[in-house]
Design brief:
It is built from 9 helices and 14 strands. The chain is an alpha/beta fold and 326 residues long. The protein has one domain: Metallo-dependent phosphatases (Purple Acid Phosphatase, chain A, domain 2), CATH 3.60.21.10. The strands form 3 sheets. The protein has a 6-stranded mixed beta sheet. The model has no long low-confidence stretch (mean pLDDT 95).
Length: 326
Amino acid sequence: MEDRARALFSFGIIADVQFADIDDGTNYRKTRRRFYRNSVALLRDAVRHWEETRVNCVIQLGDAIDGHNKSRDASEQALDTVMAEFEKSSVDVHHVWGNHEFYNFSRETLMASPLNSAGKAGAGSDRAESDLIADDIYAYEFSPAPRFRFVLLDAYDASVIGRDASSEKHQQAMKLLQKHNSNADLNTPPVCGLEQRFVKFNGGFSAEQLQWLDRVLTLADQRQERVTLFSHLPVHPDATDPICLAWNYDELLSILRAHKSVAIFISGHDHDGGFCTDASGVHHITLEGVIETHPDTNAFATVYVYEDQMLLKGNGRTADRVLKYP
């Protein structure tokens, strides 16, 4: 691999910590082991590694704590435990929101919580130029270094778990979900192909968020920036199991393909991880989930950014990758 000392900057990524102070359990289908209590120990190791390698920032890709905390009235305590580890980082940690955030907290509560990291965009944000997004959509962008831009997306902007039941967005999401999924339990997927994505634990991007993203990417094109996007939900069928795809992944892909600035798309949610490079040369990375990672290994990565490529250095279950720009 290329000399890391020559990198322009570096950043850490981690997904699906899903901490809960409970004994090991299984996934929804009872086919996979989950290490609820140990996940925070793996996070601690990741943060320690990033401090030693002196990354410029960290991106947490969603599902910081597990939904089991809600029924135990332990949501706040679990979040405090996880945030205490992230606070050991000397650099900014940017948080994406996943389905488990919404199992534990309302959108209003999340907006006022430490998981709202939009304020860390600071002077590197062009929100004024790309038009402010609505206050109830958790998406923002910033420049971590000259000629590079990061965009964090709200994959539960259009969903039934990420919206209050009385809201128009919730009602629209429920109609869409029931149109494609006739099961009594809406977390049970439809049987065929990509339709499996229409489950309650997924969501999508509203028209307003997609329009905002288009404006952000247009500005990045004009400035000849390289853009990396982050979302809890994957948006490319070849980078994930269909059951983990965003509902309107095709609409988002259409926008990405219209902009030459887009280089990388990084997501979580599918604990097995995944990877593909699409026809336009954009790399789609789905990061392995910490929650299903055995205590004797780990699942996180450090990404080193160069003029012509990014080098992803994986740890444990996460493989190394060379990511040439399109």
